[in-house]
Amino acid sequence: MHKKLFKTLAFISALACSFSGYTKNFHLEDIQVRSQGSVNPSKLKDILKGFIGKNISADLLQQIINEVSDYYRENGYPGSLAVIPEQTISRGILNVEVLTPHLNRVIIINDRNYLRKSAEERLFYKLKTLEDNALNLDDISSYLLKLSDLGSFDLKAEFNTDNENYLDNLHINVQPKNKIDFLAFSDNHGTKASGKYRFGGVIKVNSLTSNADNLSLFYARSSQKQNNYSVTYEFPLNSHPTIVGIIICLSDYELGKEYAALGAKGTAQTYEMYLKEPVHRSNETKIDFLLGARYRDLKDEFSNFDLQFNKHSTAAYGTLTFEHKNERFFLSGFAKATLGRLYADDDYNVINDGSFVIGNFGINAGYRFNEVTAVELRNELQLASTALEGSEQFLASGADAVTAYDPSAVSGDCGALSSLSLAISPFKNFDLSFKPHLDAAAVKSRNFKYVDIYGAGLSAELKYHGFFSSLDLSTVIGNKPYKDCDDGQIFFRVGYDFFN
Question: Boundaries of each Polypeptide-transport-associated ShlB-type domain copy (predicted)?
Fold first, then answer.
């Protein structure tokens, strides 16, 4: 590489001397760039077209070298250097060669007790294919971020450079996480009928079979004896890494309050399978696509009247999610399409079985003014083709929506939600934030009138080591849609992550 650089400098110097002896001007007609690095040729051509037609001079050649070098460095090849090999510029055509660092080997440092060899070969295959090629940091960073998102391990990567031969070896240290993580929590995010107060926990087993596969177990119980169980298992199939996931959710309930006299109780079972593909990763942007299918079985019983309603549904769905952030700006969103069918398994004709289509959309935007304050706007929308079963409806109220209303107050087949908040973090070394917020939502169900609700409140969040807590105090704004709605709500959550 150094020989080519010296020849370039000598060529430019000689060219400058030769031009000084001519009165005739030579015009640059074309620039041809060669390199082992892969960049967008049309964008590079657009950058260089400003030089076409100009008189050839040593200054012009140096400007071209700088522009080509900068373009490659900004597009994943930070050590690149454009050079002009010895040549005769005929017909105004200039040849430029770009020298790029070379990736020699990718060396994986791995504890086989945590990640077995077959899993290592499967997951790092894409990175291994970069060996003996031009070193592109964007590609390497993208693969490392995708693998880190598996959540089974941390990755520490560093280069060992051989300056004499201009070769780089990439050393990747696979650092295991805790084999078992445990989180416990308590909140009052439930409904009055099913139990407002809840407690529960999550157990996560990292790299369960030493294949970077993860198992999560969830359990929660409410003050009205409602139980929720969930099992999630994810396994990475390849080096993308495409993930196959399985979710099993079970719940049973006995309704209290005014429903207790009816003997209202029931069960719900959901079985789900999905494929998750990390479409794009960079230090600022993340895009995922998820394709899945589910089966849900629902039973509602009124034991005091010897009534039982049975139904089940099947559905397929696709979800696209994205995130983009930098030092100041944050943007995230999702789009989900669900195609399903509801079946009535009893003879009461209480529900209309048939097909349904649901579209869900969301976008969050935030801007940080400084280390203390930031503003965030959250928007969600649901559209449905027909009347929906209760578990498919849009929830407009509760701790995750308009917080001034009880979770069971407002829902519908179609709905929209918007929330504007100002985050204030007054302490630099203490993770405590306050968020005054304004919330609005509207829902519409088939054969029912349009309902809109508004609220305002103040929330606080505290995190300290593994401890976390949140508190929200909100009040209703405007007219309440129903007479029995409270004037406001207080929501809290408290918990501890034992392996944080």
Answer: 26-99
pLDDT digits (tens, 9 = 90+) for 353-395: 899 999 999 999 999 999 999 999 999 999 999 999 988 999 9
pTM of the model: 0.86
Phi-psi label, residue 284: left if phi above 0, alpha if psi -120 to 50, beta otherwise: alpha
In the three-class reduction of DSSP (H, G, I as helix; E, B as strand; rest coil), residue 415 is classed as strand
Nearest residue to 225 (alpha-carbon basis) of 253, 184, 261:
253
The region that residue 89 occupies, defined by phi over 0 for left and psi between -120 and 50 for alpha, beta otherwise, is: beta
Residues in the chain: 500
| Residue 428 or residue 314, greater confidence | 314
pLDDT digits (tens, 9 = 90+) for 232-260: 999 999 999 999 999 999 999 876 666 66
Phi-psi region of 302 (alpha: psi -120 to 50; beta: other; left: phi over 0): beta
Distance CA 48, CA 43 (A): 9
**Cα 300 → chain centroid:** 36
Structural domains of the chain, ranges and CATH numbers in brackets: 2-99 (3.10.20.310), 101-230 (no CATH), 231-497 (2.40.160.50)
Structure tokens at 331: 């943007």
**What are the CA-CA distances from residue 231 to residues 166, 218, 276, 296, 419 (Å)?**
50, 6, 17, 15, 31
